[in-house]
Design a protein that fits this description.
Layout lengths: L1 H19 L13 H5 L2 H26 L2 H28 L4 H26 L4 H24 L13 E3 L7 H13 L13 E2 L9 E2 L4 H11 L4 E3 L2
Antiparallel strand pairs: 1-4, 2-3
Helix pairs in contact: 3-4, 3-5, 4-5, 4-7, 5-6, 5-7, 6-8
């Protein structure tokens, strides 16, 4: 009898744990501010991630216009602030025991801004501005977009622990692009930017005349390799 009771208790516990990790559906209605009513505290934290990425992009633009180094440093620092909010939204969601499909989509969109678009725009501001450079940067952004879409489509298939946390990332997670931001920060500190000491490795001309569409900064290929690592199916990064 006691054994049967214990089994029921275990089953009830597993059922409750499963229910606690089910994503809450979006509740659509014809009322005013229906979107706002679907927001949870964790979603507001996620939006702050997107705010940081957006301000980074604007700061890069201001640097291009004014050549004021303060704007460049803000552009480099704000994606890191976005990472802080990216960590916090998950903790808030677990604390509030409230996760939703809306929050999952917001998280991916905010990550694309802060860790995809913002680093690419900073790289452009630093000096990766040739036609081929921008192809590499565009590929980096689009691969980050595809990686996030794949994550949303396959997240239910990735093995998870008892708390519902995935065991690993499939492909390099997009916040890892902060490693590229760290490299750009080092360059900025040393003055290795356009208009000062110049980009490390210089520039090569693959075809045509120098100054044309065949120019390429070899270091921009790093963004291409990073993009490929994000899309990798075999690369599995353990989740901390």
């Amino acid at each position: 009898m006691a054994k049967g009771k214990n089994v029921r208790n275990v089953n009830n516990h597993n059922s409750e744990a499963h229910e606690s990790h089910v994503l809450q559906q979006y509740v659509d209605s014809d009322g005013h501010f229906s979107l706002v009513r679907n927001f949870r505290l964790a979603d507001l934290v996620t939006i702050m991630n997107g705010v940081c990425g957006s301000f980074s992009i604007f700061s890069s633009s201001q640097y291009l216009l004014t050549k004021d180094d303060d704007f460049l440093w803000w552009a480099l620092a704000l994606p890191l602030a976005g990472l802080m909010f990216d960590f916090m939204d998950g903790k808030v969601a677990r604390w509030r025991k409230s996760t939703s499909l809306l929050g999952q989509e917001l998280d991916s969109l905010a990550d694309l801004i802060s860790f995809g678009v913002a680093p690419a725009v900073v790289a452009f501001a630093v000096g990766l501005r040739t036609y081929l450079d921008t192809i590499c940067l565009t590929g980096f952004i689009c691969c980050g977009l595809a990686r996030l879409a794949r994550f949303n489509a396959t997240v239910a298939l990735v093995p998870k622990d008892a708390t519902g946390k995935a065991h690993y990332f499939e492909g390099l997670p997009i916040p890892s692009s902060l490693g590229l931001v760290a490299i750009l920060s080092y360059w900025a500190r040393r003055g290795w930017v356009e208009g000062k000491e110049g980009i490390p490795g210089g520039i090569i001309t693959l075809w045509g005349q120098p100054g044309g569409r065949g120019d390429l900064h070899p270091v921009s290929i790093i963004f291409g390799f990073w993009a490929a690592a994000m899309l990798s199916k075999t690369l599995r990064v353990p989740k901390p």
